[in-house]
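Dear colleague,

Thank you for sharing your sequence with our group. We've completed the structure prediction you requested, and as agreed, I am returning the results in plain text so they can be pasted directly into your records. Please verify that the sequence below matches your submission; if there's any discrepancy, let me know and we will rerun it promptly.
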Amino acid sequence: MATTLKIDFVSDVSCPWCAVGLASLQVALDRVGPAVNAAITFQPFELNPQMVPEGEDTTEHLTRKYGSTPAQAAAIRETIRSRGADLGFVFNLEKRSRIYNTFDAHRLLHWAHLEGCQLALKKALLKAYFTDGEDPSNHDVLLRLATEVGLNTARANAILESDTFAAEVRAQEQYYQQQGIHSVPAVIINDRHLISGGQPPEAFEQALRQLAAE
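Please find the predicted structure tokens below.
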């Protein structure tokens, strides 16, 4: 009999390690197979909540925020690209020339959870930004992705053109910050077991098997 595990995946669609972490989690879930039934909910976290509408040059932003040299930044990009390739996720980081505000993407993800297709939209958003170099704050991009995963286009447009789900997203962001989550990805299993960062599949697999056994 399968064990149901509640998984809250706290992340941002502009976070490359979140893409790595999600791919790792999915590999781990494939490995444990029918022993675990994972109920995954993507919870909002904005790496750059004050980002201006037009976004900011990626290199300038990362240099200012983290103080990394061009050589260090290049090494990190290569590590991310390699980790993604090992997990079947394609990073074309040379296409990610700008970093954008992601709040509207989180509002759509909140709605997608209610509609039962949050995972599909999350994966579409990550691919659009990191593989295809698209702007995840652009409403045309968001509407296209919502439609592609089966969400109602008119409803998606109405949400984006209003402040629908803004309060809910802000409340969830505040909740996880109050729980001590200040970096992502943060994967919380059954409200008590935390896995931080873009861990390899083995780390997720071990936790899943251990918690399922308990």
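Summary note from our side: The chain has a mean pLDDT of 95.

Kind regards,
the structure core
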